[in-house]
Amino acid sequence: QVRLQESGPGLVKPSQTLSLTCTVSGGSITTNGYFWFWVRQPPGKGLESIGWLSYSGGTHYSPSLKRGMSISRDTSKNQISLQLSSVTPEDTAMYYCAGNLGVWGQGTQVTVSS
Predict the structure, then answer these.
(1) pLDDT truncated to tens, each residue of the chain (114 aa)?
(2) Strand partners, 5
(3) HEC profile of the chain
(4) Whole-angstrom distance, CA of residue 111 vs CA of residue 114
(5) How many CB atoms lie within 10 A of CB 107?
(6) How far apart are alpha carbons 53 and 89 in whole angstroms?
(7) 20 and 7 in contact (C-beta within 8 Å)?
């Protein structure tokens, strides 16, 4: 079965670029029909969609969060990446990757603090 594992730096300073990676196992990220999502949950708040990348490489970003955001893939490593530039403390959250088959990673905590 498909499994997702997020990884990231944990702590990022304000104004820096946040880079997260989602490693997919048990299936190819390029399999027809697969979509890969990045979602976050700030402390004390609900889930917030960031964007997605399709099996063909297409991307879509949440209009409310589109600034300085990039979702990409490395097909040789079967990974999906998220980059968020110029982070602020408001970007502190648990970050998840998920697939449209209902599979979620366990999440990675990101704290933005000087």
Answers:
(1) 999 999 999 999 999 999 999 999 999 999 999 999 999 999 999 999 999 999 999 999 998 875 789 999 999 999 999 999 999 999 999 999 999 989 999 999 999 999
(2) 23
(3) CCEEEEECCCEECCCCCEEEEEEEECCCCCCCCCEEEEEEECCCCCCEEEEEEECCCCEEECHHHCCCEEEEEECCCCEEEEEECCCCHHHCEEEEEEECCCCECCCEEEEECC
(4) 10
(5) 19
(6) 25
(7) yes
Q: How far apart are CA 28 and CA 77, in angstroms?
A: 10
pLDDT of residue 101: 86
Backbone CA torsion sign across 28, 72, 110, 34: negative
Joined together, the tokens standing for residue 30 give 């390029």
